[in-house]
Design goal:
The protein is of the alpha+beta class. The protein contains 5 helices and 12 strands. Strand 5 and strand 6 form a beta hairpin. Helix 2 runs antiparallel to helix 3. The radius of gyration is 26 Å and the shape is elongated. Belongs to the rogdi family. It holds the Pfam family Rogdi_lz. Its main location: cytoplasm. This is Protein rogdi homolog.
Length: 284
C-alpha cells in the first residue's frame, strides 16, 4: 500500500469514526424532535382544560352534490359526534341522524398510525447520546427499523381498509346513531391522507323472484352502485352512493413529518454506503 493510499485510508477512517460518533446522534436527535411533534399532533390538549384532548368540528362538503351534509367532531383518535343529513334520492326526503350521547367511534387508522410513531420513538430512545455505534451496519439496522414503523404509520393514513358490504352492515358503526339507521342505508367513515371521509350507501332489496343475476361483491374501500350482497338472508343492491369529506389539517402535518423523517433516515444510510464502497472487507 502506497503512502498516499494509506493516508487516504486514514482520513476516511477518521471521517467514518466522526460520522458514527457525532453525525448519527445529530440525525437521531433531529428525528426524535420531528416525531415527538408528530406524536403531539395525535393528542392536542384542549386550551385551558388540563388532561382533556382538543375537540375539533369539521363540516362535511362536496363540490358536486348536496345529498349528504353534516358536521363531524373529532377528539384525538375518536370521532365523538357525527351529525348527518341525508337526502333520500327517490323521495327527496331529508333524514337526520346523530351519534347517541353514550357512543363514540374509534378511528382505528389514527390509533394505529400513532402507535407506529411511538414505536419509532422507542427505538430512538434506546440509543441515547451516550451510546457508541461500532459499525455502519448497526446504524443501518436501526434506520431500517425506524423506517419500517414510519412507512407503516404513513400507510395506515393513506390506505383505508377494504370491507365487504356484509361486514359494513354488521359493523358497530351502524348501531351508533339515533334515530337508528333504516335497513336500506349504510355508512362508513375512514381516513384517506389528510381527509376524513364519509360514504353513504342507499340500498334496495332484491326480490326473491328477481331475474337479476346475483353476484356477491368482494371487499373494497368504496363500493359502486350495482354492487350486491346478502345479509340476514336478504339480498341487497347498492342503488346510490354519496361520498363527502373534510380536511383535517393536523393529519396533513403528520404526513409531512413522516416524509421528512424517512428522508433523513435514507440520507444517513446513503452516507454510510459511500464509506462502505471504499472498503468491502470491513464489517461496516
Amino acid at each position: 500500500m502506497t503512502a498516499a493510499s494509506q493516508a487516504e485510508r486514514t482520513v476516511l477512517e477518521e471521517e467514518f469514526t466522526w460520522l458514527l460518533k457525532e453525525e448519527v446522534h445529530a440525525v437521531l436527535k433531529q428525528l426524535q424532535d420531528i416525531l415527538k411533534e408528530a406524536s403531539r399532533r395525535f393528542s392536542m390538549p384542549s386550551p385551558g382544560l388540563e388532561g382533556q384532548l382538543k375537540q375539533e368540528n369539521f363540516i362535511l362538503g362536496s363540490s358536486t352534490m348536496d345529498q349528504v351534509k353534516g358536521v363531524l367532531t373529532v377528539q384525538g383518535e375518536a370521532l365523538t359526534q357525527a351529525d348527518i343529513n341525508i337526502k333520500v334520492t327517490k323521495s327527496s326526503q331529508v333524514m337526520h341522524f346523530a351519534f347517541r350521547d353514550d357512543k363514540q367511534w374509534k378511528l382505528q387508522q389514527i390509533q394505529d398510525a400513532r402507535n407506529h410513531v411511538n414505536q419509532a420513538l422507542q427505538l430512538l430512545s434506546s440509543r441515547d447520546e451516550g451510546y457508541h455505534f461500532k459499525t455502519g451496519a448497526e446504524v443501518n439496522k436501526l434506520m431500517d427499523a425506524i423506517m419500517l414503523q414510519l412507512t407503516r404509520a404513513r400507510n395506515r393514513l393513506t390506505t383505508p381498509a377494504s370491507m365487504t358490504l356484509p361486514e359494513l352492515a354488521a359493523s358497530g358503526l351502524m348501531k351508533m346513531f339515533t334515530p337508528p339507521m333504516p335497513g336500506d342505508v349504510m355508512v362508513n367513515f375512514y381516513i384517506n391522507l389528510s381527509k376524513l371521509c364519509l360514504t353513504v350507501y342507499q340500498l334496495h332489496v332484491l326480490q326473491p323472484n328477481s331475474t337479476k343475476n346475483f353476484k356477491s361483491a368482494g371487499s373494497a374501500v368504496v363500493h359502486n352502485p350495482g354492487a350486491m350482497f346478502e345479509y340476514n338472508n336478504t339480498k341487497f343492491e347498492v342503488s346510490h352512493i354519496h361520498k363527502v369529506e373534510c380536511v383535517v389539517p393536523w393529519l396533513n402535518d403528520t404526513l409531512v413529518f413522516f416524509t421528512i423523517s424517512l428522508q433523513l433516515c435514507q440520507q444517513l444510510k446513503d452516507k454510510i454506503s459511500v464509506f462502505s464502497s471504499f472498503w468491502n472487507y470491513r464489517p461496516f
